[in-house]
Amino acid sequence: IETANQLSRDRLLGGLFENFALLELLKYRANLGKTVNLFYHRDNNNNEVDIIIKEGNNLYPVEVKATSTF
């Protein structure tokens, strides 16, 4: 991938963006001295949550999208 235009058409864009978001979240938490406590979930029907953040007894789901649809 050499240009922004090429990236926007690439079928791997979503996965690349999810990985970027996850790595940034990991760095952020590490810099704050927090434990990782990040998870992923996919059920038997292929429904998924990209990132689940566990803080104490609370779970916070995060959906990562590289593009928007209307």
Give the helix/strand layout.
Blueprint: H1 4-9, H2 13-31, E1 38-42, E2 48-55, E3 58-62
Molecular structure report:
With 70 residues, the chain is an alpha+beta fold. 36% of the residues lie in helices and 26% in strands. The protein has 2 helices and 3 strands; from the N terminus they run H-H-E-E-E. Strands 1-2-3 form a 3-stranded antiparallel sheet, covered by helices on one side. Strand 2 (48-55) and strand 3 form a beta hairpin.
Low-confidence stretches: none
Structural class, please? Answer: alpha+beta
- The strand order across the widest sheet is 1-2-3
Counting DSSP E segments of at least 2 residues, the number of strands comes to 3
**Given the C-alpha coordinates, what overall shape results?**
flat
Q: Percentage of helical residues? A: 25-40%
Overall pLDDT score = 86
Summarize the helix and strand pattern as letters.
HHEEE
SS element count, helices: 2
**Biggest beta sheet attributes:** 3 strands, antiparallel
Distance between the termini: 27 Å
Global Rg: 14 Å
Beta-strand fraction estimate? 25-35%
Task: Briefly summarize what is shown.
With 70 residues, this protein is an alpha+beta fold.
Question: Descriptors for this entry?
Answer:
flat; alpha+beta; 70 residues; three-stranded antiparallel sheet
